[in-house]
Amino acid sequence: MDFLSDQSPEMLPGNRSLPPLQGAIEAPHGTTIVAASFPGGVVLAGDRRATMGNMIAQRDIEKVFPADEYSAVGIAGTAGLAVEMVKLFQLELEHFEKVEGAQLSLEGKANRLSTMIRSNLAMAMQGLAVVPLFAGYDIDRDKGRIFSYDVTGGRSEETGYAATGSGSIFARGSMKKLYREDLTQEQALTLVVQALYDAADDDSATGGPDVARRIYPIVTVITDEGFRRLTDQESSEIARSILERRLEQPDGPRAALL
Amino acid sequence: MSTPFYVSPQQAMADRAEYARKGIARGRSLVVLQYADGIVFVGENPSRALHKFSEIYDRIGFAAAGKYNEYENLRIGGVRYADLRGYTYDRDDVTARGLANVYAQTLGTIFSSAAEKPYEVELVVAEVGSEPEGDQIYRLPHDGSIVDEHGSVAVGGNSEQISSFLDQRHRDGMTLAEALKLAVQALSREPGGGEREIPAERLEVAVLDRTRPQQRKFKRIVGRQLARLLETESAASTPTDAPSDAEDSDSSGADTGSASGSTEETGK
């Protein structure tokens, strides 16, 4: 990182001069990311839509990336900047691991991401914000942990579940009612896809499962065995089973009243 | 004022080469071998923290003999080169050939600059391909030349004897256990012609395994896994029809393996 800023600073995000601003910049935005922890790990999932104003810019964008073997990052906000930020983040974690011969602690990774978001603050003020969600398996404490961020790089650890992006309000509401602490891995996977479905239901910028084009949410799980992204087959099965139930009950599962 | 003595360039270079060679010879040797599923690095290293082998990039590994601080410096330089290149372009654009060239430039420049002492290191840069034909192994001696090697290579103190031993016995398509056994045999040969035992705890072993599902193919082999591999070696060594002079070393190598294997088992 230091080496990169000495050698070719223009490669780093935030070091480019911007043209004078004329109105809001139109660039593709990624939308909803959700995460939930369960005993033994954490799941992180994202929908597939990118929007530009009221247009759908891309139907099959990928917004959840492995950061290293035991952590992953999901991005909401300006897609181009966010993808580059993740690329740099991945590079830094790998570089540290190779040079030092040991991985950064999960806390260390979360802090590093926080600094990277803060360095993007000037762009965020011009409407090009990047707000990721970071989830990982903490090998030292043997549990999955979730960190959420705001545009200024403020970092907060979430207990249980978290969401970011335009549909996050609806996703959080959905998970609030469905989340339990003793979920199994399969249940946690269903939970996050339910939450994405609810977000897509009420937020126009969030994409639901697209059965006709076979585009399903990206679902990843991190346990002590490391990062794993569900295959299209697996995630389509979860999405289809939810879809089938929603044909009878469009609002999804009901929580107890009292 | 005294006039400096005239030293011919040939003499100056020969002196520097001699100096570097002596420095490298003080270190323990290490070997790098191709096997069916990749490339294996084997060396004797009493330390578990100060590695002789390490990962540079997805498919590229690094091995060094000589002075630790000097090759560690070169290793970090290599990681930086690879990571910067991979970030700027694409992960596929980082190649062992490119890296070996950078190392050769560095070593060559320092070797021929009169102001600095030459590096007392000998490096191996290896890249595993998706097929055995795509494997590349480059050896970089202290003076900055590059040698493109095939099959097996040894660097460090007793390297000439070890590499001639390996050249005779190494063949393509060995299993990991076979390659490891051959490497341990080669390393346990004394310069005088004798043999000594290298216990498993003193072995540093790493592989570039093309069958690994992850993008990063480099992996260290330690603890139980190493003991298991050394054990399969002892079981497999019985039916092999090795040349008669290697028969002795076969059995001794097998003993080392099974002995260390069993201590590992009882230790757990």
Describe this protein's structure.
The complex is a heterodimer of chains A (258) and B (268). Chain A is an alpha+beta fold and 258 residues long. Helices cover 36% and strands 26% of the residues of chain A. Chain A contains seven helices and 13 strands. In chain A, strands 1, 4, 5, 6, 7, 8, 9 and 10 form an eight-stranded antiparallel beta sheet that branches. In chain A, strands 11-2-3-12-13 form a five-stranded antiparallel beta sheet, covered by helices on one side. In chain A, strand 8 (130-138) and strand 9 form a beta hairpin. In chain A, helix 5 crosses helix 6 (185-202). Chain A is globular and about 60 Å long. In chain B, strand 1 and strand 2 form a beta hairpin. Chain B is globular and about 70 Å long. Chain B is 44% helix and 21% strand. In chain B, the strands form two sheets. In chain B, strands 8-1-2-9-10 form a five-stranded antiparallel beta sheet. In chain B, strands 3-4-5-6-7 form a five-stranded antiparallel beta sheet. By secondary structure, chain B is of the alpha+beta class. The longest helix of chain B has 24 residues, at 244-267. Chain B has a single domain, classed as Glutamine Phosphoribosylpyrophosphate, subunit 1, domain 1 (4-Layer Sandwich). The A-B interface holds A 3-4, 7-8, 11, 69, 87-88, 91, 94-95, 98-99, 101 and B 49, 51, 54-56, 76, 79-80, 83-84, 86-88, 214, 216.
